[in-house]
Hints:
Elements: E1 2-7, E2 10-13, E3 18-26, E4 33-39, E5 46-52, E6 58-60, E7 68-73, E8 78-83, E9 92-99, E10 114-115, E11 119-124
Amino acid sequence: xxxxxxxxxxxxxxxxxxxxxxxxxxxxxxxxxxxxxxxxxxxxxxxxxxxxxxxxxxxxxxxxxxxxxxxxxxxxxxxxxxxxxxxxxxxxxxxxxxxxxxxxxxxxxxxxxxxxxxxxxxxxx
Length: 125
């Protein structure tokens, strides 16, 4: 089992930046993918970005390409999400996730084994 703890959320104005962190512990070597998801009130949880844990190859949702950057520091067991040029529609609870498998679609939330508790991001206009 893997434990995930997010931090770094907060309130910013449109155009601002935030960096989210997710510290992982436990059986981390078994997890081949890590990702960030988000969920706004009344909406489905959606994938934001993911990264393979060995090659550190990134994947992004179209809505965040060019604005968000996912990265993984294996020496610190920490996943990051750098968010720039934030928009009000980025407002959501952001969750860190991890899974064993590489093959399934990176943005399928049903394929992830471990989830953090979330960190709130609020962007005001």
